[in-house]
Amino acid sequence: VSAGNGCGHTLLTPHSGTLSSKNYPGTYPNHTMCCWRLQAPPGTSLLLAFGDVDLEPSEHCAHSSLLLADPQTGTAYGPYCRNSVPSAPLLVTNSSTVTVLFNSTSHRSGRGLLLSYATSQHPGTHYTQEHVREPDPPLTMCFSVYCPAGCKDIHGDIWGNPSQGYRDTSVLCKAAVHAGVIADELGGQVTLSREKGITLYESAFANGLRSKRGSLSEKRLVFHKVCYLLFPACDDVLEVVAFNASSWWHEVDVLGQDRAWVAERAALSTTGHSWAAKPDAEAAWLELDLGTRRNVTGIITKGSSEQHDYYVTSYHVSSSRDGKNWRPYRGSSGQEDKVFEGNADSQGEVSNTFIPPIVARYIR
C-alpha cells in the first residue's frame, strides 16, 4: 500500500513492484511525503534495487530524505540523499515487510527516487532503469533476468519491436512488456539474447507501449517466448474457420452501389474494406471460430482505410469452448475484465499479448 501526496508511479504486488516519487524523473515537489508498505509472502524476504536516488543534499538529509525500515527486526536503512547515498545498488533484507518513507521540504533540485523490489524467490532482479551494457569484445549472449512489476510506465525509451528485436540501448524490462513476454502488472522472468544489430529499428505500438524508430546499433535484444510443450508453435498465425458478428454495415455509396462490411472481411490479410457493425450499434462484437480448441497467445488489430478512416480504439475479449458459455478475459491479475488498447489510426497494426494464453475454440 502507499499513502501521501509525494507518491509517483507505483505498482506493488506480493512478489515484485516499482515505486517512484512524484514527477520522477522531473524535480520532485516541495513539502511532500509518501509512505509505501511492502509486504512479501510469509517465508520470503525482500530485495530492494535502488534504480535512482537523487535528493537534494543537506546535513543529515534533513531537507529531503529516503528512509527504509524493517519493523520485524527494528532495523533502519538511511536516511539517504545526494550526499548520503546507499552503499550498494541492491539491499538484501531478512524481512518480508519493509516500510519506505520519502519526505521533502523546500529544495531546488533533484530527480527524486526510483526503486524496484522482488522477493528472495526471484533473485537477479534487473534494475528498472539500467540498460544492457555490451561486453568487450562483443559477443552473442543469452541470459535471464527477473523484471519487477510496474516497468511499463517508468522513464526511458525503447527502440524496435517484437519481430525485429530492440536496440541494445533500450530499457530492458520496458522492452519486455512491449514484446509481450511479461505482463506489466506481475513482472516475471525474462529470457533474451544479445545478437547482431540491424540498420533500422522500426517503431510499433504493442501492449500499451509505443516504441521509437531507432538507427543502427551493433547489438540488439531479442526476447524469447517460452511456449507450452503441448503447443510448441505459439508464434504461428491461427487459421479462422468462420467469422460471425453482432451486426454488419450495409453501405450504399454516393453512386448507389451496395457494399457489405460483413464479418468475413475482418481477416487481417483482407484487401479493401473491413468488417464494421451497423452505425450506432451498441455492444458490437466480432466472433472467430478456430475450428478446434487452440492456444491463443495474442491478437493483432488494424483499422479500415478503404475510403473511411475506421478503427477500434479499445476492446474486451471473451472466449468459449462450445460457442454458448463465454468467459471474459481478465489477464494475469484476474480482478476485472481487461480492456485492451487498440488503434489510434486506420493504418498501423497494434499487437496485444494474452498473458496467460487463452485455450478456446471461439474468441469474441
UniProtKB/TrEMBL annotation:
Q: Which SMART domains match?
A: CUB (SM00042), LCCL (SM00603)
Q: Which residues form the CUB domain?
A: 7-120
The leader peptide range reads none
Write down the PROSITE patterns for this protein, in alphabetical order.
CUB, FA58C_1, FA58C_3, LCCL
The membrane topology term of the UniProt record is:
Single-pass type I membrane protein
Which Gene Ontology CC terms are recorded?
plasma membrane
Q: Which sequence ranges are marked TM in the entry?
A: none
Q: Which UniProt keywords apply?
A: Disulfide bond, Membrane, Phosphoprotein, Transmembrane, Transmembrane helix
Disulfide bond recorded as keyword? yes
- The segment(s) forming the F5/8 type C domain are 227-364
In its UniProt record, a GO molecular function of this protein is: signaling receptor activity
Q: Write out the annotated subcellular location.
A: Membrane
Q: What is its main location?
A: membrane
SS bond partners: 7-34
Residues in domain LCCL? 145-221
Q: Name one Pfam family in it.
A: LCCL
Query: What protein name is recorded for this chain?
Result: DCBD1 protein
What organism is listed for this UniProt entry?
Answer: Certhia brachydactyla
